[in-house]
Amino acid sequence: MFEGVYRLTERASATFTASGLSLHYPDPAEHVLEPRTLRPGVDPLAALDELLTDVIREAPTATGCVGVELSGGADSGNVALAVQAARFPEVHSFGLLVEGSTGRQQRERRRAFVEHCGFRDTAITAMQHPPFCPGGVRALRKPHDPAGAFYQEAFDVVREQAAARRCEVMFTGSGGDEINAHHSRTQAELPTPEPVPWLGHKAVRALSELNEHLAPIPVLPIPTLMGFGMHNPGFLRAGVWPVSPLVHPRIVRFMEQLPHEHKRDKALFRERIRRAGLPEWVAAPAEPENFLAVLEMGLRSYGLPVLDGMLKESILVDLGYVDGKALAQARDDAAAAPVVPDLLCDVLALEVGLRGMM
Q1: Taking the model in full, what pTM does it have?
Q2: pLDDT tens digits for 70-80?
Q3: Could you tell me where the DSSP H helices lie in 183-323?
Q4: For residues 179 and 176, what is the distance between their CA atoms, to the nearest angstrom?
């Protein structure tokens, strides 16, 4: 869509000279191909505890004022426990709260972590800042990354709050799902994605070239890096340095070697929460939090009106990336369906982002 735009992958380098731009890619990263057997008497939890604390202490902070994204789940909870152990002078926790019975349980879990760790907490109701909401960056058509996170408006509020409290670093639980998964070198089969009927001819052609000219295999899980690309630039714009300890290269390698029984259902992470003295309903909640209701409300209340405008005049349709007639049918189907397909969020965000650039 844009000429002369390059994305620099991890460990790669770009050199700008009078003669132009040259890119140097690293060798493919080496990975552990299969888990190893633990030696008798080895405590993997103690090893994880030491690794996490060491990694967090490496974070670059001059004042010692740091933040923690605390959702109340096992990933952010383990990071929070390690941040507490690192003994920073000032720690603020931030969280987006969901609604309903799931939200009530999330609030209780977050409260348990905050009280245990002694953090200064800021909680934000996610439903007040859904995608495409009035006053958000997309509704105002301010310059932003069209491929940014679904919940950009809500996370913008988190970042503003962290910057207002002068947090130099924000520790996140990103990557916890990936390092606990059976990685791609197993025989696991990925599900076949459902076809997207409203893709235009240019998008279909681009999809056929998706696996060509790929960057070398990275150190971190690819979904984690993709998440960083959506999530982290907003923190940097706010003057906050995002750090995701769970996918530090040392921890990635440790988790690759760990026997599957310690990773299944995040068993090691949940045991670490239990050993910290927190109750079972915190370590292994019956209803983990999710933001699907926030996405649905944003799409139905604010996204579909954007889509109506897009059906009248659209950059993506004019350029051949979206089939206008098929998109109109998708709009009718979405209005009648109990749940608006989340893929529509992608195309709406891209359209609004492009308009903001013009």
Answers
A1: 0.91
A2: 999 999 999 99
A3: 201-208, 222-237, 249-257, 267-275, 280-283, 292-298, 304-312, 315-319
A4: 6
